[in-house]
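Researcher: Please predict.
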Amino acid sequence: MAASTQTYLLHSLPFTHSHIKPRRSRFITHASYNISGRKLRAAVIGGGPAGSSAAESLASGGIETFLFERSPSGAKPCGGAIPLCMLHEFDIPIELVDRKVTHMKIISPSNLTVDFGKTLKPHEFISMLRREVLDSYLRTRAESKGATIVKALVTNLEVPRTSNEPYVVNYIADNARKSLAVDVVIGADGANSKVAKCIDAGDYACAIAFQERIRLPDHKMKYYENLAEMYVGSDVSPDFYGWVFPKCDHVAVGTGTVCSKQNIKLFQNGIRSRVTPKIQGGEVIKVEAHPIPEHPRPIRVRGRVALVGDAAGYVTKCSGEGIYFAAKSGRMCGEGIVRASEGGERMIGEEDLKREYLKEWDGKYILTFRFLDLLQKVFYGSNAAREALVELCGDEYVQRMTFESYLYKTLANGNRWEDVKMLSNTIGSLIRCKIVGTQMQGLDLAKLASTF
């Protein structure tokens, strides 16, 4: 029996650490071993929107796929907002949506309130759903396409020493240590990704999100029936925002921060204080906290391993959006592997992953991430800047451009004259709030202007 065949029999066999020695090795960047007579085998680590979408694409494309998820019933602390285009693009049943938000308020540090939804068309809305509901649906769909769901804790990933060896996923399932040898690995295991650590993908700054699910009396829940609120101010977050998002029978009240994670409970008290009259009498039914990446990792592909979703750092600054980009990156990566492997018939390498996945992703979305990073630096640096942000959000043209870009994930077709006016109003707001020349030092205003 060939050595490679013996290695593949590791799947689902209990083992001790002495059976497989850890490999501290150089990384293999090319493919050189043959898989004739069988299909390409892939492991997807993490069963959220990124992992499930990747697994569905892989299995649908003819690749033998294993999807690892530690806690299928778990729920990530997440606002749960998804854009309208995701319902259609990912065939999300409308019954999964808890609330169709058609009104959004953004509230400044001084409690200046702007209705941020006046330009929504009659058929447009922001979908609010629970992550445990969405994630379960996407995993089930991946399984229906042929993916094998493995309820297990992945302990580590062994990287091959030579190009003709597989990757080995070590995991614990049913209180037994097991392993699975695969050709390709997709890391979709969140901000603290073990897969990323195993391939030395580098570190990044992480925010922490803290959220309470609060069940309100019926008459107060009625107020949030189709309304979401965003609060900005140093009392709720020094570099992000606080939120109240409606769910099926409760609201999610939360906040996040990068620079003052140790004070997250203080900021949570801040958002609760701002909304006290609206949530008084409510019952806290769940408390959640979770890390959220602040920018893409230095390395997102190494060898035959690719990172997607939070593991890759695909959460936008300023807005904190991550669900759509997680699912999209998982799908793009899965489809790229299917193309490169010709439906699972041939081995792939690092260059295939970079060409078919990373280049496609960066070409489509990297400018969006950079632009929102710039906006956060401009508008989240002080309470004065936050006042300017809320003031700008009252402009209907700003609202229309924002919602068209968010809801459909395409660059909205603007009017050049209106774009010039919007830039002028932006600078005017910043001047009135005494931001120009202070917080904006070192920022590239020409770059900001070029985005309008």
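Model: Residues 206 and 293 are 4 Å apart (CA to CA).
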